[in-house]
Amino acid sequence: AAAAAAAAAAEEEREQATTAGYSLYTLLKHLNDYEDEVAFTEQSGAFGARSINLARSGEKDFETIDAGGGITTKRAMGGAVGRCEIVNIKGVLERVYFRVPDFCTSLTRESKDELLWNVDRETPGRQIQELFTRSQDLEFEMKHQHSLSRLPLWRFVTTNKGVFDFLVLRLAFIQNAIILVRFSLDPLHAASPATERALSEEEDLLAAGGPLAVDAAPAAEPPTSFYLTFAAATLFTAVAPVLLVYRDSRFSLRAKARATASGVAVAAVIGGVGKYMMENWGWFSGAYSTVTTASLQDAVVGAENAALQLIEHLGTPEWLEAEGHINRVLGGLQCLSCVIVFSIYAVQNGPIRVRRGLMDASGLSYGEVMARPEWRLFSLVMAPVYALTDPKLVLLAAMFGAAYLGINHSPLWFSVHLLDIVNKSADLQNVLRAVTLNGRSIAMTALFGIIIIYLFAVVGFALASDVFVLGNFPDEDVPMCTNLFNCFLNALNEGLRSGDIGSFMDPPVAGDNRGFAFRFVYQLSFWAIVITVLLNVIFGIIIDTFGELRTSHQATKANMENLCFICGLDRFTLDSKGPGFDGHVAEDHNLWTYIYLMCYLRNKDPTQLNGWEQYVYGKMMAEDASFYPNHEAIRLNGGGSGGSGASGGGGGED
Question: What pTM does this model have?
Fold first, then answer.
């Protein structure tokens, strides 16, 4: 108990010292802002010159205090102190500082991109209003991510997430290359009679000493130069990358370890090849002498024979056994990678998706939902539903299941992992989005087309069911409209695939004018209504949606590159009259700093709020965005690089 009390006292003392440090740092920043403002104030005479000199010396002293003499305030606290510009209660633009909460460092790149690309930028003022709602979701996500990051195992897994994410698709390509070879060249699965005859002829040819038949009898031992060459190559590939990387201080310890592992792996491969050649030196020496002395025709025949030998070898039980071992090893890595990627995504995004689903269903805040018993019960029932309706989560779960089935049942299941290319390619995601964005319109048009085809099937079944046949020469023709259901399915299948419902209709008999007229009207109307109109309507919806997505993407990109998200000033104005667009959005009106500001005020004790904090917090609770700058900035109004508005503003910490 005494030790726990001492630890608690030490922790409290450390927190008080940290708070005092942040307050001192904030005070220094305000003093620096004030002196910068003085430096840019027009004054005359010796007094004006003295003011500028004081401001410059003050700025220099501020940097010296931060960086020199063992005082590391700027390095230690600069990244944890946010700077924003707000419109204060007097309507004057003011610069304020605040302490960024620790959990704000857990904001992920995916969440940033989702906000930047999906916020409404077309409606004036709408993006700031959305920022209020989205900041609450981001705060919940950051707290969730921050709580997970305290677990050592979780930190290790998330740090190496890129490695496992990288392995899923790469292993899928390797596994499916092996599967393609096995199920294409294994005689038990895919060998055709022609291949079997070729293999038989090749065996006879080799037995008779045909072209390029290699004498496999043992020859002399490899020369000394061969041993020296492979020993030097193995040593060089193992040592050279290590020496180059370890001598360069720019590489991290992880990069050096990766280079060492790569060098050792390559050296092991070269050494293995050399060992195999030594053990089979007779065959290699005979093959070399045969190739160098053979004619061009014999070389071509020999290459064909070698290919057939390879095919025969790949179908042997030894190869199948080796392929099974390789698939089990790669399948184990694939299963492990899928489990880790699935777990990371489910743990990180599952609670966030459930929270959003509950808020959308109830129309209440998350705190109000959890405060009501009926909604808590509803959350227990619907939480799995919200989680399992995430398309990416379902895809990751399917890949994990396919990895398990690939190890225990059939390696063909590993083909499912090739779908991971959708997660890796933004272009493919846009293609799928073009199909699913207007999915309701496409589905209704397709349903209407199916109804039209059904009506054609009804007409054909009622008036001329006997003319719907499929040629099966030399056997008898197959009737395609024996009943209404059969007629409908064949009209749907043959009519859409071939583009002509007349493809499985008998031609009219000479002199049958009624039959000719029926076929003409029936087939032409099907082509005009179903093939020409309805199918092109569906294709047009998809193409138009893809074009709209591309136009929207370009407009959003242009908005991000040329307009400030916070104040709406354009790049030309800031580049010509202000500090420059890039510096403005990175320092003065940084979007993420404003999000951190709202998180800071929501999590601070209301009784500890100072003047500007109480004002901004009240505006936030009323969802009033009037404290955000609107087409104005301090440095655009004549303030210095660290200038402020009417007043220096209150500190982030009391």
Answer: 0.67
